[in-house]
Amino acid sequence: MSVPTLKHYFGEREGVIVAALEHARRRGAPYLLMMTRPPDAPLRESILSTMRFLAMGWSMGLDKCHAVGLAQGLEEPRLGPAYVNEILEPTTQAFEARLAHFAASGELVRCSLRVAALALVAPVLLALLHQGSLGGRSCRPLDIDAFLVEHVERWCDAYGAYSASGALKAPVAM
Fold this sequence. Notes:
By secondary structure, the chain is mainly α.
């Protein structure tokens, strides 16, 4: 495609990137929808499998969406909100929807689902960026699956309504 054609359809460079992020969101929508369905496993198992699903998507192109969105979004005022709206928030909202099922069943402590989703997703996104686009795999390798297992365990210790022994935790004041 020629530069004049790109300018005709998208305007400046930012328009191309916004269109690419919108396209990525549309392509990812069915996968995010899958994450919002009622879980068929208890909290720890369900969250771990959902995190593994995210990591699998990462290796299938999701990494590029986040890398481009972050890199360009930090540089261009128009692109930051586009990345947030098209990639980051839909991912976070899918996790919020999954967590809502556990909140409704009493498997989560009373909490802000948005905060809980961000606390769950943000470290995983950083670890995946670290290992992939940022080159950490070559200078400071991390076993992503072991990271996911430990992260989900710690997250469930904090947000799960039941302790590891199965006892109901005392309610947290909000």
